[in-house]
Amino acid sequence: xxxxxxxxxxxxxxxxxxxxxxxxxxxxxxxxxxxxxxxxxxxxxxxxxxxxxxxxxxxxxxxxxxxxxxxxxxxxxxxxxxxxxxxxxxxxxxxxxxxxxxxxxxxxxxxxxxxxxxxxxxxxxxxxxxxxxxxxxxxxxxxxxxxxxxxxxxxxxxxxxxxxxxxxxxxxxxxxxxxxxxxxxxxxxxxxxxxxxxxxxxxxxxxxxxxxxxxxxxxxxxxxxxxxxxxxxxxxxxxxxxxxxxxxxxxxxxxxxxxxxxxxxxxxxxxxxxxxxxxxxxxxxxxxxxxxxxxxxxxxxxxxxxxxxxxxxxxxxxxxxxxxxxxxxxxxxxxxxxxxxxxxxxxxxxxxxxxxxxxxxxxxxxxxxxxxxxxxxxxxxxxxxxxxxxxxxxxxxxxxxxxxxxxxxxxxxxxxxxxxxxxxxxxxxxxxxxxxxxxxxxxxxxxxxxxxxxxxxxxxxxxxxxxxxxxxxxxxxxxxxxxxxxxxxxxxxxxxxxxxxxxxxxxxxxxxxx
Amino acid sequence: xxxxxxxxxxxxxxxxxxxxxxxxxxxxxxxxxxxxxxxxxxxxxxxxxxxxxxxxxxxxxxxxxxxxxxxxxxxxxxxxxxxxxxxxxxxxxxxxxxxxxxxxxxxxxxxxxxxxxxxxxxxxxxxxxxxxxxxxxxxxxxxxxxxxxxxxxxxxxxxxxxxxxxxxxxxxxxxxxxxxxxxxxxxxxxxxxxxxxxxxxxxxxxxxxxxxxxxxxxxxxxxxxxxxxxxxxxxxxxxxxxxxxxxxxxxxxxxxxxxxxxxxxxxxxxxxxxxxxxxxxxxxxxxxxxxxxxxxxxxxxxxxxxxxxxxxxxxxxxxxxxxxxxxxxxxxxxxxxxxxxxxxxxxxxxxxxxxxxxxxxxxxxxxxxxxxxxxxxxxxxxxxxxxxxxxxxxxxxxxxxxxxxxxxxxxxxxxxxxxxxxxxxxxxxxxxxxxxxxxxxxxxxxxxxxxxxxxxxxxxxxxxxxxxxxxxxxx
Lengths: 514, 475
Description:
The structure holds two protein chains of two kinds. Chain A is mostly helical. Chain A is built from 23 helices and two strands. In chain A, a hairpin with a 4-residue loop joins strand 1 (65-73) and strand 2. By secondary structure, chain B is mostly helical. Chain B has a domain at 263-475. In chain B, the strands form two sheets. In chain B, strands 1-2 form a two-stranded antiparallel ribbon. Chain B has a two-stranded antiparallel sheet with strand order 3-4. In chain B, strand 1 (57-59) and strand 2 form a beta hairpin. The A-B interface holds A 72-76, 113, 116, 138, 141-143, 145-146, 148-149, 152-153, 156-157, 163-164, 167-168, 171-172, 175-176, 179-180, 182-183, 186-187, 189-190 and B 315, 358-359, 362, 373, 378-380, 384-385, 388-389, 391-392, 395-396, 400, 403-404, 407-408, 410-411, 414-415, 418, 421-422, 425-426, 456, 459-460, 463-464, 467.
């Protein structure tokens, strides 16, 4: 198992696929079909590899697994180091899972410059998987930033009316945050002589330096996350991006921020983390309440889901920075759950958008009549987003709130109101879209989901429910790594890990009423 | 024993022979001379390969030094000259600029640049710098029937003469206070404990003269006008080679004779670097002409390259050498694309004319996209690593504020690269393009794109060479 470079293979297989696509010639129908098949096969193969990896992953070990290390920039302490632990495991799987779905979702809806479109998606997959596998800070940065290129092109070329504005905003916001992180990384390399993440995790930085480094990393991850008040690029990017772009954006790209916090900020700068907790808590609560209210006022479906993403990510930061077992477990779970639910919601919006070409909520209504299957899927996803017990959304939100409650009661209480607001806007959307009176003839004439659409919604819906009733599969695998992370963190600080009695199984599953 | 200056001797002799040929045969010999010059540069570069990395050799009575640094930089310069001549071959033919002097001026200014990086004496420095500059002034004005070209040449000449004056004044001050022109002698005469104020002022003037050559702020004003006004093939030469040579000069001065003035010099460098990065980033935002844009981008890039010199460590120098190589290759690629962009025979220089290139000529468009992303320093392209290492050198030297301002400037600059990409990929085409990509341009374009992509995977060959070259300056 150790000899087989499964992580590199997963990372670079899509890139190889992209090169293959370059070689396919012709504009004919048959050529287009070939291109789509190649892209689907390559991304499907990557997904199969990720499942193989998931099965072979040893859930009891906290250390990095499937490690590969090769010489790269030897003289400057940068190496090609890949590996995953419980924290990154599911993000890798999520990336590999969503890409083929995105390709399927674009099967009939994208025809303009199809080859370039699919190449961009495969490149994106390489960068996404690489980001979560990289165990060298510069390698991580390379993948983390590399994501910008295909995403910029995807939004800019295949996006909506204000695509240019949205793509530039997305690009520049993210870049601005990231370059500061780069300077921080270079400072750490200068200090320790290595860019190896496990080594850096063990390194101790002087507290005053930690503050600056933490802020530099924060500037990058907070934008990516996105946290209030640097979230404004997200609604624009979501609204203008093509459906599949939104799916990847919400499903994977937003998770890079939270992952970065767990991989860099918390273990490497514990003193600074401790110092900035109140700030992060404050920003998270504002994000949860404010963006939920903003979402309530949206007329555009995609914008509403985009704002809800910001609110959901607020729970993630809350969970991460509560720095106890439940909190961090909840944050990781929430990210995975949001990756599935919001990706599926954007796909669901894409389904009706492809038929009516508008995202205006008021143009739709009473879809349960003519699109019963769609309505059913939408309601399940809506419930997942609201966080109803029995769906994946509940587990993450609940654990994150529980963790935060132990640290700061007021924060957790305020954040909990976000759950109510979340239910409010999602139910509002559902009422108008799925039920409600018939508004338009063309909306009433829309056909139900096609076979392909059903095919890619099925796994998503199953996942939403499965993660909701059996979260232990995920939580068991993330637990050792998170435990290890928290132990390191508290050892460095000289404090005790908050005691948590057998966190993985209680209280979540009991409450599920299994 | 072959002279260590064999490549230069060969180049000069062959150049003089070609000059005779040109004088006798006139215009009809242009294409032969062009190919011959390409061949000379290739052979000259090959002659360098025989050098063994032994100890530094003084030659021409101590005027010239041949060491690992000079060998590597000369190789880089030969490569740059080769590429820019290659680019010119088809451009000159297509645009009917058939003057046999042009390739020979390339060659002679190239010889000047080769001597610049090996100069070991302020006099050799001045003479070699002037040799290369004079040729470049003429080249800028080579289309003398065109207003823009004549203006570019005149501007370049007047400002260049001014900077030469500054340089000469600085040299005389240093000479007056140290009593010698040789680098070794100056280095010995100046020690950190005993710094004659006059020598310090002299160094400032010398640096000012040299900053002009690399188009650093505040001596950058000529760059946009010259880039825009000069014929594109000459602009390519300007952008690709002379700055590398001038940088070689600066590196050698700062690590050799003025090593003990490092603290004073780095203050100037910080100012120039910051100024160049910021002016290059902000002024570029407003440009409509692609050549002007590249001019501002080169100003910014020189600022980044200077960052590596702040700390005065071998790692920093190595990062600068790497930066210059990568920058050179990216620029060559950009010009290869630019020269091929035409509509009904008219060269396109305005950014808005590139609209829809992604649809009409995807190969060229995506090559330029990759090159521009690389220039803006985005991973995984080579340009990212170029920036990474100079920033690393700056951070390791403790220049945090400069580094932070530098990366912020790079975000601003990335906007104008993105704008070009946007026009090419996102906008609708406004007309057809003639995509007559001549074979030599195609080679340069594909070569540079492949380089910037492959460098990420196989970086060590170039990195090691840069480190060896830098190491030879720090015995």
